[in-house]
Amino acid sequence: MTNNRWKIGFALGIIFLVLVILITFPSILHLQDKMIGDPGDGYQFMGFQYLGHMQIASGQFPFGWTHYWRYPFGAHFQDLSDSAIFIVEGVILYQFFQNPVFVYNISVLLLLFFNVCLSYISFRVFFSRLHSFIGAVVYGLSFYTIAKTGGHINLILNASLLLCIASIVKIYKEKGSRNSFILLTLSFILIPLSSLQHPFFLLGTLPFLFPFLPLLYKKELVKSIELAKEKKVSLLISICIPILFIFLFHGHKIIGFFENKIYLPESDIQHVPPINFLIPNSYITSLVSLVKNNTYRWIEHVTFVGYLEMILFVCACLFLKPSREKKLLIILTIIFFLFAIGAPPYSFLTHFFPYKAVLESGRFFIIFYIWFTMLILLFLQQLQNKKIILVILSLLILERVPLSFQLSPSLYDKEFITAVQKTNSSAVLDLPLYTESYYGPRYDMYSIYYKKPIVNGYFHWSADRGEAKQLTDRLVEYKCYRNATDVPQDYTYDKAVSKKKDVIRVLKKYDIRTVVIHKDLNLNKDTCQRAKKYIDVLLEDSSQWKKVFESKEKIVFELQ
Questions:
Q1: How many helices (H) and strands (E) does the chain have?
Q2: E strands, 501-553, where?
Q3: pLDDT tens-place string over residues 236-289
Q4: By the 8 A CB rule, do 423 and 388 touch?
Q5: Among candidate residues 156, 151, 161, the one with its CA nearest the CA of residue 205
Q6: I need a labelling partner for 407 at 20 to 30 A (CA). Which of 21, 38, 270, 327 fits?
Q7: pTM given for the model
């Protein structure tokens, strides 16, 4: 029996892996030369993996201070990064492979594969193998999840929240079996280590879930409390082990938060236009994208539930036999749909913890979609015709077949990178200055190739403060802006000369003798007009600067 179960598990694993390769095609053909995703946050996460690799190599486990970004002051690695699981994947893979693009791509595909597997394991607590397989496709390979491969790598492994719910139900069903507590422990580890935002989703869900349990499941709730008392040692272990992992990888950030050294960002809630639930945002590149959506193309707007899934959901609401489960799931689906579109009560709750930490309302999709998928599976369970169910499964997979898949350039230019590496300098200053999400991640990526620290560096807001900003704040005149209207109009030649003297003095002090000019990063646009003038003045004295490389896109200077 056990051998047969392992064989089935292995076969399912192979099928899930094939599905991941199919749905992300043709990424499997470009593992070494192109990056999965759009040219944005993915470069930053690739940098996280490389920094983690360097931290391990230098004996700073479990990740200490790094000066590799925001040289010479740096920041604590735990503060600037997210998704410990993804970083650990990189640390392991770097032991066998040296190509950062390959390490990154394999890590992304594995996360997606793990998400499908966790979804299947979770649904298996409630449903048969076939229905759990369908659940793994619908939830584990949701359009939201597939879209997150575009750059929000920390949000791919969202089935960890589903696993938490399933493990609690499994504990009740199996009267506190060892396997059920193992799953609970695993979920408590995966939730914060996949993304620091995921625990906030869990905490934000509980106040809207618990009130219904005494109303609909009073007897079960009483028995669960009695079981928790009986199994208090197992429960305590399931809580304590994850706490050790959390502090191992995120302890510095947690301590900083309680010491009021890390503040949640002040910003407005980001609403998702409801049409994106019904018609796929153009960020999606699979077969369903043939139907056009005119809303802004953005990864945060990918909350599409699926065309066939919509039909099945309506059928579930209309034809599923009345039950406590149906009533609870419909109520929760409505509540968290309102959360996901940023409607009341969520727009009010964002003033309070933990909702204040999730201003991207659309990310509550992963909670909404749990109940949504459960309703679909309950309806399919009610169907008796296996052939119809297999046709439905085939159509669900067909929806996810890609017309194309987002792949980005690796940014590697051997001649340019070699020129930077040969310069006699402790670090590199990339200009124009970008420390934010637009183009900032590219500098993170270049730092991997330079094999030298950089003055720039885009990373998590929790570290983008204080010491880490000391030098970049002094270089603000060399900064480009997102909008031309934001560019200060205070430039004078005398100011630029005075600034040049100060900057050269600082560069020499910290042995930053390599300056790379990225002509291809908007340098000649209106958004960079002020920065370009300051850069021209900085480099105008040819006796101070030696040009060691120039191409259509880059220029490398060495300070003499």
A1: 24, 8
A2: 514-518, 545-550
A3: 999 999 999 999 999 988 888 888 777 776 677 888 999 999 999 999 999 999
A4: no
A5: 161
A6: 270
A7: 0.95
